[in-house]
Amino acid sequence: MRLKNKVAVITGGGSGIGRATCLKFTKEGAKVVVADFNETAGKETIEMLKEIGGEAVFKSVDVTDYKQVEDMVNFTVETYGRIDTIFNNAGIALGKPLLELDPEAYEKVVKVNQDGVYYGISFAGRKMRELGIHGTIINSSSVFGFLANANTFSYNASKGAVRLMTQTAALELAPYGIRVVGVAPGVVNTPIYDPVKALGRESEYTHKQMTKRFTPPSDIANVVAFLASDEAYAINGSTILVDDGYASYK
């Protein structure tokens, strides 16, 4: 078990990549704090973890509220005595042409995808430094943080920002033995794409992936678990593409 006795906080743990990562971390021996704004979904994840013998607790959080993120980190330490990993995974998407994008909609995406990551890095980093823990902070970017994509201006902007936030935080936190890394999924089989499936438009999104399918969330979770492990000690400041070749598409 690569993560035995480690304590991890996973935001957006109620569904998709977050839930898959909670399951993977549990199987690897970690104690997990499932953090999500959706209490019903989060507690469903908790039940799944307990069914496989995991130790986990739920914490309600709105990642756009810095005080709630601080409380989440403090809750983790109060519950388990430490925090080894945080996966800043919570995110939302919005498809709308740039010239039709209003400031409120733009800011909503940025607050979740970018500000939420900043709060997670900041408060987890402070707590790890305070406790002398050589932990790992993992941030969720996207292949669309590497590539331009029409009609997703706010999403692209936020995910591109996460890449540089990861690099900058890695530089600043390295002296404390804290690694900061990122993961950049391609098109993943999560609830974000449910409307696409309902319209039978899957191929419009999967045709640039080499297997021509949605990537299972568990594939992303496998990489996140590796990044959280001691085996990845030499990976720092990097954002790893897990995009089924999307970025290589010609």
TrEMBL record:
Keyword Oxidoreductase part of the UniProt annotation: yes
InterPro entries recorded: NAD(P)-bd_dom_sf, Sc_DH/Rdtase_CS, SDR_fam
SUPFAM superfamilies according to UniProt: NAD(P)-binding Rossmann-fold domains
MF annotations from Gene Ontology: oxidoreductase activity
UniProt keyword terms in alphabetical order: Oxidoreductase
Keyword Oxidoreductase: yes
Family the entry assigns: Belongs to the short-chain dehydrogenases/reductases (SDR) family.
Record protein name field: NAD(P)-dependent oxidoreductase
